[in-house]
Amino acid sequence: MMIFVFRTDWLQKKRINTVFLSEAEFIQINIPGIYMVYGDIMFKQQQMYFSPTNEVPDMIKMRFTLSGSGTIFNRINKQEYIFNSNQQNIIYMPELDGIGQYDTGQCYRFFEVHFAKEKFLQLAEHSTKALQVLADHIDTGYYMQLGDHNLPISWPMQQCIRDILDCDYPEGLKHLFIESKCIELLVLQAEAFERSIRQKQPAALSSNYDRECIYQARDYLIQNIHQPPSVAELAKICGINEFRKKFAVTPGRLRG
After folding, report:
1. What's the whole-model pTM score?
2. 218 pLDDT band (50/70/90 cuts)?
3. Which of 23, 111, 139, 207 is the most exposed place for a label (fewest CB within 10 A)?
């Protein structure tokens, strides 16, 4: 099919047809340090093969799967990446050599923001703990995702993506607006993963009795620091059954 190019070199719209794709539309947006792509694809075949290339710069990918589903297995780091509808994550994959599996029965729509490595590291330097940990791994070239599992795409994220694709500011403001929206998307993703981490943390002790048991366990461990009891022994001393299950605390953590 024909390839359509609109406006200046900052934005391109393409329609393509290949042996793998029955029809696909891509919108590509480039500004300094950031590359964005929106794709709307119908696959002819379930499998696609990805080979390493030196033409792709080192970038961090903010991935938003808007509809459809697929997986990519990267042979380099032996990891499978799962992309389900309405899910998002941040991925650092320096090289890709593997196989993608896609559903041929529905449209596969996605949006990605790729930050140049140095730009992303600067943004993450004074941000959340999760982003800082991600940046530390990226700085060493380690394959990494912000979360082990994807999270849902929120309505503010959807709106931010739409604002980028529908941007009609004049040329002088266009780059500034799109860069601000990409950073806003990064903030929304970081906030979502920080919230998910907090929700997974053990719940606070719910009663005075619980707190007294913890204090008693702590005092006992201090007094017997050279011969600490086992979890079962400590639970019996404190008068609580299944101590580990109830509090998710070990003697080693209490000593700390």
Report:
1. 0.72
2. confident
3. 207
Q: Output phi, psi for 76, to 5 deg.
A: -70, -50
> pLDDT class for 56, splitting at 50, 70, 90?
low
Residue pair 204/248 in contact (Cβ under 8 Å)? The answer is no
Can you tell me the distance from the alpha carbon of 5 to that of 11, in angstroms, rounded to the nearest whole number? 8
Classify the C-alpha dihedral 219-224-227-233 as positive or negative.
negative
Q: Which two tokens stand for residue 248?
A: 């998710």
CA dist 229 and 142 (Å) reads 40
pLDDT given at position 122: 93
What is the C-alpha to C-alpha distance for residues 95 and 75, in angstroms, rounded to an integer? 10
At 188, which amino acid appears? Answer: L
User: Would you place residue 249 in the very low, low, confident or very high pLDDT band (cuts 50, 70, 90)?
Assistant: very low
Judge whether 187 and 195 are in contact, CB under 8 Å.
no
Task: Give the DSSP letter of residue 56.
Answer: S
